[in-house]
Structures are given as C-alpha cells and as structure tokens.
Amino acid sequence: MTTTVLWLGTLGSWLFVVTFVLDGWTRPGYRPVRHAVSALALGPRGWVQGANFIVCGAAITAGAVAVAGALGSVPLAVVIGVFGLSLVASGVFPMDPMRGYPPGTSEETPTEVSKAHKLHDYAGALVFFALPAAALIAAFVLPETGWKWYSALTAAAGTAGFLAFGHAWETDHPKAGLVQRATIVVGWVWLGLLFAHAADVSG
Q1: What CA–CA distance (Å, rounded) separates 2 from 124?
Q2: 16-29 burial string, b = 16+ CB within 10 Å, else e?
Q3: What is the Cβ-side half-sphere exposure of residue 84, based on CA atoms within 13 angstroms?
Q4: Which residue segment(s) compose the domain that 144 sits in?
Q5: 77-129: pLDDT as tens digits
Q6: 96: helix, coil or strand?
Q7: What predicted TM-score, i.e. pTM, was given to this entire model?
Q8: CA 26 to CA 169: how far, in whole Å?
Q9: Per the structure, how many domains does the chain have?
Q10: Would you say 203 and 5 are in contact if contact means Cβ atoms under 8 Å apart?
Q11: Backbone dihedral region of 101: left (phi > 0), alpha (psi from -120 to 50 degrees) or beta?
C-alpha cells in the first residue's frame, strides 16, 4: 500500500506538468511564454487546470504521508504535504482575469483584486517556497551522495527560479510564463523522482 501511494505522488507530480503543457499549447488566446500557469484555470476550459491543481495536489499530499516512513524524515514529509495542499488551494481559489487572458481581458494588471485572487497568491507563494525547502531538507536527510547533490542543486535552482519569476511577474515581463515553467519543471521532476526513490526504498 505504501509503495502504491508513493507512486501516486510521482504520478501527481508529473501529470501536473504534462497537463499544463498540453493545455497551454492548445488553448486559444493563451500565450505560455507570457501567461502564468494559473491563468489556465480561467475561461471556458478553465476546469482542466482547476482539476489539475486539485487532483495532482491531492495525489502529492497522499504521497507525502508515506514519505515519512519510507525515507525516515517527518519534516520532509510535512513540507511536501504543505506543498501538495497549497496546490489544492491554488485550484480552489483561482486568480483573476488579467494581462490579456482570457481573450478580451485588459492587457493591464488590475489595481484591485478579489479575495480569491489574494488567497491564490498566498497559496502560490507557499507552493514555490515549500518545494525548494523540501529539496533542502532532502539534501541533509537522504544518505545517498547523488541524492544529496541533486536535492541541493534543486533547492538552489528552485529558489532562484522563485525569485526570478516573482520579479518577472511584478514587472509584467513578456517571458514571465516561461520563467515560471522552467522553475516548475525543475522542481516537479525532482519531486516525482523523489517519490519513485522512496517507493524503491520501501519496496
């Protein structure tokens, strides 16, 4: 059962990326290089990304519960659980339309945003903080040298990506979406591999 739940965590991590990549490429009026992943939760097909946040976040949270026993680290499991729950919250509370998406929306950033948008921002900040934190913890608690280095590099890259995306978002940089996607891929691939490693150890 533990192994199955850990593989569920891997599936949730990687399915999240596959879903937003395919949805973003095929969504009319959506510009993946500029627009944030969260904007995919808006418009007629918004339910796809909304479900992606919630389903994959729930799968990651379930996997996090099994990490404590498989890898012997409660702090690592807790931080991954926070990450998963924050993804779920990101789906429950969508961002506001802005910056040209959905089509017909003003290209500007509104001066006032809804409560749901503010909650989405808080959840997003937790998402991008928790994953580098989990990688940093893993760098200390995992015994394998390769995993220590991989996790440390992921923590550094995730932190740099989080800061770069924050700046790009605040300045409405035309490549903000690309910066976010690079950061997500680095972190989510590491997380999926970590779950797979935990499944192998526990099996």
Answers
A1: 28
A2: bbebbeebbeebee
A3: 27
A4: 2-104+112-202
A5: 999 999 999 999 999 999 999 999 999 999 999 999 999 999 999 999 999 99
A6: coil
A7: 0.95
A8: 23
A9: 1
A10: no
A11: beta
